[in-house]
Amino acid sequence: MIEGGAHSNGPAHLGASSFSVGKHALGWILGHADVWYLLFKFTAYVGRYGGGASRSGSAPSPVTSTLSVLENLLMLEEDHSGVAEDQEAENLENLEEEEEDGERHMQQIRRIATRNRAETLPNAGSLSLSPPPQPPPQLSLSPHQNQPGHNQHHQIGVSSGGSSTVQVVQPASAPGSPPPPPVPLTVLGSPLCSNGGRISPATQGDPTATLDPNWQATKSTVRERNAAMFNNDLMADIRFLVGTPGSTQLIPAHKYVLATGSSVFYAMFYGGLAECTEEIEVPDVEPSAFLTLLKYLYCDEIQLEADTVLATLYVAKKYIVPHLARACVQYLETSLTAKNACLLLSQSRLFEEPELMQRCWEVIDAQAEMAVKSEGFVDIDTSTLQSVLARETLNCKEMTLLEAALNWAAAECTRREIEPTPQNKRDVLGDALYLVRIPTMSLEEFANGAAQMGVLTQQETIDIFFHFTANNKPKLQYPIKPRAGLKSQVCHRFQSCAYRSNQWRYRGRCDSIQFSVDRRIFVMGFGLYGSSNGASDYAAKIELKRLGRVLAENNTNFFSDGSSNTFHVYFDNPIQIEPESFYTASAILAGGELSYFGQEGMSEVTVGQVTFQFQCSSESTNGTGVQGGQIPELIFYGPSHEEH
């Protein structure tokens, strides 16, 4: 082996095994004087009897031959060390790039959290991220971990500051066991309130839990003993410095607990690349979100709040904790509204959550004008902006989309620290501007709006004017085909309508009916019966409530031609209807008193993929009920048979 190394064409032609042999042989030879002497004598013998003469006619000396062998071994070791050092440098560079990407991602999450805290509802300034309100919680559900037959339980309560807090307690799966089904989350109580970014007491840990010298005897279960160690310095063998510089928090932890709950932590502490360090910096994670992660790993509890749920989803993805990530997604789905749909769409694309993305698109399609006018729209990323502007199924005016795009551009100029001039706005929009279908506006909208905003070039403005007025239309970079939008559907709850003299009259009283659905839909308006005594004008007040709270109302007018046809009246914006809850539809009409009315009413009607259930309303004072009366139709957006 040594002679082979001495007479080879160089270490670059050796395999991995030669590197290893060279390394160990060199160290062993240099550490044994007797071996060095034998090597010297051996090379002298070979040089004298078998080595021959060199081309110059003189044989190399024994010392020269021996040094040649050692030099080749040393070259093998140096080359091997160089390769390892290069690989280590490359790995460190990749890790630095990943941390920079994570920091950019967290900056966007912080902007979104700030925006969420600023978006409030009229009732007590609570967050718009909350689901539809339900009665205040009256019960505290106690845990059942000591009772047989209970595999999981849910703790539902209200945290300090008024925030609704979801605690989902579930057993940890054994290694190799199949993953448990998705955790069903229920949010009760008033709309979620911001805690101002402070860490919830529920995730601070209890420093007094282990003050008793015999504290172990006071904890009857493994879960209780584990929970006592959460955010506790006792026996902690690792600490995390979490947060951005200036707002960091030192959080103690225990490697064993973390490694059993996350493959990433296992690799960090016990894997082949484990580092011997007592403190790890985590600059791309919010302290409150990191504590939520640890709370789950130590206690099997999931505690989510509106202003930290996105940061918690990020940390769950970062450390590959799928159960926590799934709970975050479910929470976001229940909190989804038109005001936060675009923000959540942007995040769901980054987090690669296709189901959440689909839910966001459902809301954006049906409530596009509300979504793009929301304050959070300006915080979405460029890719999401382009996706929204290119969407074929948006129910939105192009003028509204153009204004929203320019609002986003102004915010982007601020982020880039440049002046938001019309030219700079156009520059930051780039090709996204060409996704707005300006030629499909009305001539009046274009002349009084888009043409005067300063973002179109003079030639573009002239060409679009010619597009409106000339027979020979110029070629434009902007799409000229209107968006298809969503197709509305109608639920008819009566099998027939009738008229009998003096039997049904509009007398300024309320006609009302309650309904529920099994799929999420968006109600646009109602179909109403008109005059049965010739043509008549009507003034109508329509209203939609849930649990006594008015979700939408509108005062409008319609003309009845005296036929039995229904006449459609609409709300200003579609209203999101959640499944398995009853809503109250009401109408008060003033006009021709005698009207048509419905009969042979059905308590259950299926339209497309949506099943409606109807029941009588106590608010109905004009005779409308399930079997007959007014409000014969509900107009809505929702899934149809054609959708898969």
What descriptive keywords fit this protein?
644 residues; alpha+beta; Potassium Channel Kv1.1, Chain A; six-stranded antiparallel sheet; four-stranded antiparallel sheet; 18 helices; 18 strands; 19% strand; flat; disordered N terminus
Structural overview:
- The protein is an alpha+beta fold.
- It folds into four domains: 2-90, no CATH class; 164-169 and 216-335, Potassium Channel Kv1.1, Chain A (2-Layer Sandwich), CATH 3.30.710.10; 381-469, no CATH class; 489-637, Jelly Rolls, CATH 2.60.120.820.
- Helices cover 37% and strands 19% of the residues.
- The chain has helices at residues 2-7, 16-30, 33-49, 62-118, 222-228, 255-261, 263-270, 287-299, 309-318, 322-334, 341-351, 354-366, 368-373, 382-390, 398-415, 422-429, 443-448, 458-469; strands at 153-158, 164-169, 238-242, 249-253, 279-282, 301-304, 489-492, 494-498, 510-517, 521-529, 536-546, 549-560, 566-577, 583-590, 597-601, 604-607, 610-616, 633-637.
- The strands form five sheets. A six-stranded antiparallel sheet has the order 12-11-14-9-17-16, with no helix packed on it. Strands 7-18-10-13 form a four-stranded antiparallel sheet, with no helix packed on it. A three-stranded antiparallel sheet has the order 1-2-6.
- A hairpin with a 5-residue loop joins strand 1 and strand 2 (164-169).
- Helix 6 (255-261) crosses helix 7 (263-270) and helix 15 packs across helix 16.
- The longest helix is centred in the first third of the chain and has 57 residues, at 62-118.
- The radius of gyration is 36 Å and the shape is flat.
- One of its GO terms (cellular component) is cytosol.
- It is found in: Cytoplasm.
